[in-house]
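Ticket closed. Logging final result for UspA domain-containing protein.
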Amino acid sequence: MKHTKRRLDESILVCVYYGQNGERLIRRGHKMASMLDCPLYILSVDPQPFDAFDAEKSGYIEQWKALSVELDVEEFILLDAETRPVQKVIAEVAKKHAISQIIVGQSAQSRWEEIMRGSFLNVLLKEIPFVDFHIVAVQRPTDDEVYDIFEKGVRAYLIKEHDRFKIAFTCPKQLAIEGIFFKEIGTDFDNGIFKFSYNDKMHEVHISEGYLLEPEKLPAEFLSPLS
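Final structure:
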């Protein structure tokens, strides 16, 4: 059951694009919304239709959806197959939900940084002059979040093989855990990180030479039926 927000004169919108910085921006927005006790919305815009998303994009969308549920976000908004200018879309969403503050990330790998160049911000200010903008300079990931050492994520599955869990890349007939595998760059083995969503929460485990290193990190519900 959602907590009833007391302040409805304030409302925050976080704009996220693909990359590990999305979670940081969402948590920043959640912190601000908690302090103000106001609604929080998450927006992602993509010119591609959802069915055309690759595994990496789909993985980020699932991650943000799960995080939105975990943080009691008012609504996660995905506008796919969107052909209009991004600033028009943001302005429309801001007006619809009476947004008073917008958070946009700025990093070397963020599409939002490219958008922010030129007249983008000026156009937004003209479209929605009543909104305060927070341009967040996203810091370099910490040691346990250095995703630039991994290849692009691909859809994968964890399956039980005897007393171990093995990574597979084709949909198996047996019961499996579906997620996204990020392989380490420069290795011939299937070493990397496997991320999956369960019960509206994101989970992350390490894979070494094709096998799960930390079965104890799997939710208990997975261990019982697969054993």
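Residues 149-226 form one domain. No further action required.
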